[in-house]
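User: For a benchmark we're assembling, each entry needs the component sequences followed by a predicted structure for the full assembly. Here are entry 17's components. Please fill in the structure.
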Amino acid sequence: MHDLPQQLANGLILGALYGLVAIGYTMVYGIVQLINFAHGEIFMVGGFGALTAYLALPGGTTLWLALPLMLIAGILVSTLVAVGAERFAYRPLRTAPRLAPLITAIGLSIVLQQLVFSFYPDAKKARVFPKIPGDPFHLASITIQRSDIFLIIAAPICMLILGWFVARTRSGRAMQATSQDPDTAKLMGIDTDRVIVMAFAIGAAFAAVAAVAYGLRTGQIDFRMGFILGLKAFTAAVLGGIGNIYGAMLGGLALGLAEGLATAYIQHIPGMHLFGGGAWKDVWAFVLLIVVLLVRPQGLLGERVADRA
Amino acid sequence: MRHRSALVVSIAVIGALSLSACGSRDEKKAGDTAGGASTTVTIGVDAPLTGDLSALGLGIKNSVDLAIKQANEKNEVPGVKFQIKALDDTAKPAPGQQNATQLVADNSVIGVVGPLNSSVAQSMQQIFNDANLVEISPANTGVALTQGEKWATGTKARPFKSYFRTATTDAVQGPFAAQYLFKDAKKAKVFLIDDQKTYGAGLAATFKGEYTKLGGTIVGEEHVNPDDRDFSAIATKVKASGAEAVYYGGEYPAAGPLSLQLKDAGANIPLMGGDGIQSGDFIKLNPKSQGDLATAVGLPVEALPTAAKFIADYKAAGYKDAYETYGGYSYDSAWAIIQGVKAVVAANGGKLPEKPREKVVEAVQKISFDGVTGKVSFDEFGDTTNKQLTVYAVKDGKWAVEKSGTFAG
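Assistant: Structure for entry 17:
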């Protein structure tokens, strides 16, 4: 167990990544009750946007200059795609039964994958993503990668900005009002369409930040990366209480920790040696989800909503 | 109004479909007459032409294409023209199975080169065998494909007589790596990881058998999902285990980030794998690959005098993608089919018989010629008689030959 601190760090870093993507699920769900299954692909196109910016820069540009530009490009692409999806795929179906936009989302996710697969140069195989050069940092017995530093800094900053935005700005309060009761909010003069677009845009921007973090971490991106990660982030959002912004982050961290610890230690529990290791980490992630849903169906930070259908 | 536009669209679609059908029919006629009185036969290719493993798959396709072009130029089989039909299996069993059905249904197909993955081959063998269509894989190393499920217990039985391969098996490759790591590299403690696919798990198992027999210690075992790209938890485990090397059964899309994250975590030990990681893309995906090792079947194509012409021709043909690990084997696989057809035609008085497929299978079984990769011939299981292997190491961003040899059990 002497590697426990390191495994906890691994889990938290991975969890922060899940959390960033989960915000997009949670915000959209909180406001329009849509599980946007195309959100994983919004994350993916953000990665490709950032990669395009990196490739467009002249060779030898330092990463300190490149990284902000990559972030901007990634956020731009993700946001555009998300807002476009909202406008053309979801808005026409807003009054349709819930199932219709859900199926559209799944369809959209496949369309986005295939578009990148077919039209992005060489996207048929994994594309190399730049890494932050240099040796890792050592903190007592914990080793932290330079590339992960980006995530460690970016995740809390994103959360703080979001928290401030939702609680303190006019638009943020309009968002809260819409999420509580869209019809009344509309009657009070809130432009709910604008609020919904905003929720999509913010979620997409966070997903793009997460995509850059993912690329830096693994050194590669590919057109399918949004699928599994999107599913995990969705799990994190449900775990934390879907609709709750802080819940998404907490759910992400819990999920990351669960995966890391399951990979590392479940094998060593007597009688469990067959069910541990990397191959089982997804299983344990979903077992955790089921347990939480059984014990606390509203999720870790969710509130019981009885008055809503 | 709505109904009318729907009608117009349907008519347009049907029209377009029927037009394109006409187009393809015309094309075929043109192909038939181009060779004068000759018959055109097709050599099918099934490989991942898109997706993670497409670098290897495109190398296979191009090498077969080269073999066919040269056979046509040289008029290798008088009266017979060859053409290629390449299908994409995306490295997955289900599309592979569909492709097999499609190839079998095309009467002009006389033999198939492929697939890349052993798991895909499993889904295709029966279909080809039922149709008596010869299939030669340049890359499958899963032992059970030729020797049956019980090969490990010593009961070898060939399940499909139409299946052959020019690559040696994991029964040879895993142990060869074990011998190298234990005897040459002097690594006595290894951490074993595999991706649970037919190829990866089989390789890891044969490695483990030989390595423990030699006296090495397996300090830990892990299984990962092939689509996984986050290995931080496993990297930490490996580092804590005190392993001197990692042996990975699997392919480069996961092996690249795995090796990178191992080194990032501070475990500065080499990762060794089989031919599934011996690709240029492994190095591209992994900036810290220096010192990583891989075995590959056969001798390096570059080192064989017989292959100099292949490499020159491949370059001259101007293919966009490299021939990669299996180029030479793919070329030899296609050439084995061409030679099989040649023998059948010769035995039938200079003409292709009515139903040639079964006769080609018999002819390929007896084939023996000097190919790009050395002697090409098959034993009673359909395995290549060529048991040479090479260990490669990453040096300065390239796979460099570390040691070549013939496997001795």
